[in-house]
Amino acid sequence: MWLAAVASAAILYGSAAIAQSCVGDCPPPNLQVGVNELILGVNISLGSSELSACPSFDSNSNSVVGVEELIAAVNNSLDGCPGAPTATPRPSSPSPTGASLPTSTVTWTPAPGPHILFFGVTNADNALTEPIVTEPIPIYARLSGSGFYLVVEADGRVGAGSTTFNEGGGPPDLEIQVTHDLGNGSAAVCDVEAPNIGGVPGIDPPQLENPSADVLNDFGCRFVDGEGIPRGRNCGEACIRYEDGEFHCRDENTRAQFCSLISTEIAFPDGDTLVTVRVRDALGLIGPPAQLIIRVTGVASP
Fold this sequence. Notes:
With 302 residues, the chain is an alpha+beta fold. The chain has helices spanning 2-12, 35-46, 67-79, 213-220, and strands at 87-89, 104-106, 116-123, 139-142, 148-154, 174-178, 240-241, 247-248, 256-262, 271-279, 290-296. The chain folds into 2 domains: 2-89 and 101-106, no CATH class; 116-296, no CATH class.
């Protein structure tokens, strides 16, 4: 609630932004303000975190993080450091006495939502696989519809706290859908507990305008972090293993990685299934979609 209110205030009252090197850029500074830093600022303001965790929020050196400083941090997250808005003059209009009284307003250009930096497949051992076709949509061929990972990486104001399951029933931050039922196509939402593990319904054709939140949550909750919690990962717990045995993100600019093991309960059917994904950031901005095709050719003969 606080974060949404602050974001709205930043858009409506951008002219009140603070002139500061980069309010909200927490140690170690990187000239960016991420969603985790915005949340930290709110926590400092509420007294649940120490100011020493991010001193840049105290732009007026009064040892308190106020609403205007939270607004400045959101502006910096939207527009980049230092975050000062650009004033655009309005055409002057005559006053009743004929004098010209120029005014100005702040023009806000909303930042785009997160971009998908990588969308691909690894084997069950987390090693990357290559598509058999790369354009116009990558096609990944599999002998079986299960036993591999789907991996999504995104940039922008996302992080390990980005949701893949929305307990409130709305769409999660990770919106991923398929054109054919996975497994038994069960309509139950997030039925991942034994013995009643169910599949995921398909959406054909893909829906980007008001897709079913239940279906998005049903598939999304299978994307978990290293502790099995339905949310994103940072690159320190990435699910892609390289030849040196280390785990890393595929793209060095990744801010959040999402990983799901495709088990037999959510196996892809034979043939081609189109998978569409996009990611929403903490300010509610949705990014452009990315797609790939899983082509299941059938189980190899024993």
